[in-house]
């Protein structure tokens, strides 16, 4: 399922569409058992899902729609 969603997100972002990324509601780390709700992703427990997230993140970060260098960060002097 994650791969399907990320493929759509990447296709949209690559084409200059409105979708530029996706996130999880429950991206947890080990030891956060009290926050589990059945929809959590814990990277160390799900290496294949972690790999899909990593690959998509690299794909999205590799896109350049003229935005690189145009983002201004608060508190950073140019």
Total E-strand runs: 2
Mean pLDDT: 78
Beta strand %:
5-15%
Tell me roughly what share of residues is in helical segments.
Answer: 25-40%
Oligomer: single chain
Distance between the termini: 42 Å
- By DSSP (H or I, 4+ residues per run), the number of helices equals 2
Largest sheet: spatial strand order:
1-2
Globular, elongated, flat, extended or rod-shaped: what is the shape? elongated
What are the segments in which pLDDT stays under 50 over at least 5 consecutive residues? Answer: 68-78
Class of secondary structure makeup: mainly alpha
Q: What is the string of SSEs from the N terminus onward?
A: HEEH
The largest β sheet comes out as: 2 strands, parallel
Gyration radius, in Å: 16 Å
Overview of the structural elements:
- The structure is a single chain.
- The chain has 78 residues and is mostly helical.
- It has a domain at 2-55.
- Helix content is 36%, strand content 5%.
- It is built from two helices and two strands.
- It has helices spanning 2-14, 47-61; strands at residues 27-28, 41-42.
- It has a two-stranded parallel sheet with strand order 1-2.
- Helix 1 (2-14) packs parallel to helix 2 (47-61).
């Amino acid at each position: 399922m994650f791969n399907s969603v990320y493929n759509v997100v990447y296709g949209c972002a690559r084409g200059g569409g409105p979708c530029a990324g996706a996130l999880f509601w429950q991206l947890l780390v080990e030891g956060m058992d009290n926050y589990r709700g059945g929809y959590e992703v814990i990277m160390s427990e799900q290496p294949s899902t972690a790999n899909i997230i990593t690959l998509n993140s690299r794909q999205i970060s590799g896109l350049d729609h003229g935005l690189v260098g145009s983002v201004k960060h608060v508190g950073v002097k140019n």
